[in-house]
What does this fold into?
Amino acid sequence: MNHLVSSVPSVVGRLLFLFIGYSCAALGGLLPKLWLRFSALLGAKLLSYFCSAVLHLYPHPSVEIFNVWLRMDLVGICFAVWAPTSVFLDDARLWLLHFACACAVAGSTHRLIDSKLANASESDLKRLDRKRTLRTVINTLYFLWCLVLCGIGYDFQHLWIIGAVIYSIGFFLAPPFSRRYPDMPWHFKGLNGWHEDFHLTVALADLAFIMMAYDVLQAAE
Ligand SMILES: [Zn+2]
It folds into this structure.
């Protein structure tokens, strides 16, 4: 696991290199700007899935390293929420302004994550303290804002409705809420639970929104 943590700067460096390369290609007219914005969507989603996969699947050797990935996962979600809006903002200044908003939400999320979160017991997690309440409120408002922004951009058509309904179900399955729900007959201890249902729901909604973004791309060609 240590090598995973130490490889983060090189992964970030490569992504930055890719981003600069893409930007140059777009500015030089080699790549349509809409494709660049679609790539930003896929990049943000992939980064979020990567952080989530490492957090859940790798055997973390210490609580400190688990905490690093927990932070990466929670911050990555802010960019995953921002991602679909990327294709709807034509104006470069508006795009950058909204990306700055996503960075501000991610920054405040990072600040509001308690360093003892990884050590918290299940009963502690059931109670939303001030920091977690504030983080949940900020993330919820930003999620709703991004959802509406995409809806306006796509004229609230079918793929947006499907995605928005599934995301809304996923929202109520998110850990701050689902910790209070009783287990269902399809949940098996140590194998799956509400958290897995949450990830599955979000993956389905992501699929609908990526199809929606691809539809926007095709319509523009
Ligand atoms: Zn998770």
User: Anything to note?
Assistant: Residues 22 and 39 are 9 Å apart (CA to CA).
